């Protein structure tokens, strides 16, 4: 055995994982726009019995409920921000334990399982997602459990494993709608593996029941059927994007991509009382009539296929670039992977290769969707057992050196320390990203001191209002004279403009020309923002 006392090493990996995550949890007050919505949804579920946030950029209904529910439990003790971070950390620690148990079952090698747990514990991507108010930590845990349980079912035909896999799939769907892509691929794998029809039907029935129950709930709130409100909301973005681009082509206007995105996310609806995306999402008649004016009723099928293939090719190149950046997997982990693959067929761990190839295939679906860094984190998790094998092989190779030939534990410790240091660029990048937004916390504290309670603030992003404890609504991307009706409709007391944001707006804001019902108090410079 290369590594002694693997259970002790599991606890050591958990301890390292906790220390790394706590450093980022308490190191700054970073929270994303989605994070503010998750945090307040969870808070209000347990304190008001309502699924509302009053602080989101998007309609509350589009956020799946499982992460806010789990987050909300901790709001009985901690602040909403800290509750979200603690919930994510717990899910991240469960992932470390889950990869240990699964690696042990698939390889029968306790040393390999311990190495896999360590690699997950120190992976900068895993540290990042499990120390933020974000649903990724829970989603990745459930997604991995789904893959692991399906694999164990394929190996031993234990229908109970498939039952638990179905529950994990349903939970993943209630965390992020992207789980539907993986659900379809799992069904295809089960069919190709020629598993009993009743087993497959049972898996599909359980997951479909979860989807139908959630769809029924959202139908009661929206008035129309949709598998997932978030998917439908993304589709509204696509519809609006095509509309705006068509208008630009007609007027001969050159489209700036960044400006197009701002216009897409923050433009006003025709009645000037709501954002265009929200109005379209809620099936507003005026918004629908405007978009149908230029809608083509004779789509070119061949051209659509060509555009899809071009889009997939573009996303493939983008995916390669994101992996090359070393964010999902540090460069040292690639070395572990290559060494782990070496001679794999000659050893008893060949099933690791089959497992990795089988479940890497579904991740390729993202090239037909939106390529984001977080979509590739599951790849690093799936490949971890192979990387752990490479980790052990490097320790074995160290026998060639006289001083380490009889001190394999020392070789393992040295490699673990070296791995930790190799992850520091990823930690540094994570710290740079999170700490650069810490000024929102400072702005929130200033707002809390200067303004009266129960004020409502309109801004481009919600973080400052969240930290101040005020209600929030999005500040539209529109001329000043078009904002008056919207801001009165939303009962806004103050608007908050970042200096950099002001320069991006379609108007040169003069603080003295604000609508009369908005009182101009004062300005504050916070860290050059």
Uncertain segments of ≥5 residues (pLDDT<50)?
293-297, 515-521
Helices, by number, come to 24
Q: Give a count of the beta strands, DSSP E runs of length 2 or more.
A: 3
Radius of gyration based on Cα positions: 25 Å
Strand order of the largest sheet: 2-1-3
What does this protein look like?
It is a single chain. 65% of the residues lie in helices and 2% in strands. It has 24 helices and 3 strands. Strands 2-1-3 form a 3-stranded parallel sheet, with no helix packed on it. α7 (136-156) packs parallel to α9 (179-192), α7 packs across α18 (377-397) and α11 (229-251) crosses α12. Mean pLDDT is 83; it is low at 293-297 and 515-521.
Key phrases:
529 residues; mainly alpha; 24 helices; 3 strands; 65% helix
Could you provide a short overview of the structure?
This protein has 529 residues and is mainly α. Helices cover 65% and strands 2% of the residues.
Map the helices and strands:
Blueprint: H1 6-27, H2 33-47, H3 66-74, H4 80-107, H5 110-122, H6 124-129, H7 136-156, H8 159-173, H9 179-192, H10 197-222, H11 229-251, H12 257-266, H13 276-281, H14 285-292, H15 301-324, H16 331-341, H17 350-360, H18 377-397, H19 408-422, H20 424-435, H21 439-450, E1 456-459, H22 463-468, E2 471-474, H23 480-489, E3 494-496, H24 499-504
